[in-house]
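Mods, move this if it's the wrong board.
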Amino acid sequence: MTSGNAGQSTGGFGSVSTPRKISGGLVILVGIVFIVVTIANNLFAVGPAFEEMIDDFRPLLLQESLDSARADIAVLDAAGQEFQAAVAPGMAQALGMTPEEFGGMVQSNYPAVAQGMQSLPEITATFSGLIDTLESQQELFASADAIPTDDLPATTVPWIITISGLLAIAAGVMLFMPGRLWGILAAVLGAALLIATFAMSLPQKAADADELNDQLEQIYTQELIDGATGSLAVVGAMGEEMQTKMLPDLAAQMGMSPDELNAFLGENFPATAAAMQSMPESLPRFEAFVGIFATNLDNYETIQPVSFTPIIWMMVIGGALIVLAGGYCILAKQ
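Not the wrong board. Structure tokens:
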């Protein structure tokens, strides 16, 4: 008599159909993929690096900051052009020298000034190009800055994916059990993933972040930082030597007081006078600008290898698979 009941199931996993088991296994696999992708892409390090870098660059990319930097560059550029075209010949005439003699005197007695004036065209062109690049990326930056939302920091992204993976694994295990409830819960989980992903515009934000990454890759290097730092050192040394040595010497040679020389410069060489007046404020702004790049180079190198678009579409595909698996289990007879 007992042999007649041997093939009957008493419930549990043994009574679940093979297609339902496949559905459960698929959902478990989706959850595992979520977790593996999070770890493989080092997202628990990328998230904080991304957030710190975005926080530091945010004030730099304000239009007001970019306009201020462009104005500072224009002042330096005008001073460099004026020095070659007007200051050197004008001061040479005032001192009873030929332009060549004045140039030789500056080169010999004020080497930092000579180097700075000679380097200004290249320095201003380099910084102007950098400002242009940053300004052209403002929209991409604003989009990436909103990952995952304006109110949630990027540090939450790896946790969102990991928790979603763990919930998917749990849902997959539940699908091995008979009953439609587990299918409903799985479908709700998958739908929530899909809705949240598109509601937060994550596909577009990820694409913008990847494009921004590609644009920065061309310029954001140690070479850029070293070159910019060196350029600032040249400009700073030029300003220091001009203020503390060259201008007092010229005033003495021309029989003027420092105030008289400043008035002379302002009247005859306004661009140079404006640069000397603004440099104590503009140079620290440039140093802070370069400092943000230098401080965040490690953060950028952490972020740079990661492509965000495939990760987001993984979530979309994973959510869709969970919905399909849950829907099948809702409709299944077993």
